Amino acid sequence: MSEVSPSFEVQVVGAAVVDSLEAPTRMLVAQRSEPQTVAGMWEFPGGKVEPGESCEQALVRELEEELGVQARLGAEVPGAYPQGWRLSERLAMRVFFAEILSGTPDTLEDHSALRWMPLPKSKDDAQAYDDLLGLPWIPADLPIVVALLQQLQDAGVGEA
Ligand SMILES: Nc1nc2c([nH]c(=O)n2[C@H]2C[C@H](O)[C@@H](COP(=O)(O)OP(=O)(O)OP(=O)(O)O)O2)c(=O)[nH]1
Question: Which GO terms describe its biological process (predicted)?
Fold first, then answer.
């Protein structure tokens, strides 16, 4: 049976904000404050791409609006589709590593908490894997977290 690629209506972008693209040791995760369906769950800061914007432009804008930081983007965490990772029938999200250039991240919009989570130092760092994967992520995000940890493990870095 051939698989038809779904046509997502809404493009979302999310950032795996790390302390350093070259040598990441921590990742910033955000707890959603609304809407009710996802409130209390953890996610990648980001949002919907607006008309006329590239995904990269949208993500830099969202990081400024939501966290109050200027950021540079690194490598993508590629999903199964050109639009990235499937979030729902209508939504897909492209995810990029990012590094803060200036500003201190704050809960300006959409979030009730931010947390810098240690990234695994090696594939045997069970504590870091457990802490990160054990967060109550928005369910669609969990495979993305697994993939990005694998990507860091394979490459050793989050560089573009
Ligand atoms: N930002 C973000 N959204 C996610 C993630 N996982 C996930 O399922 N979503 C969903 C939640 C929302 O339905 C949608 C993103 O919408 P959003 O509310 O963040 O977008 P936005 O900031 O542009 O806000 P708005 O235009 O809806 O007001 O994608 C994630 O990791 N980060």
Answer: DNA repair; DNA replication
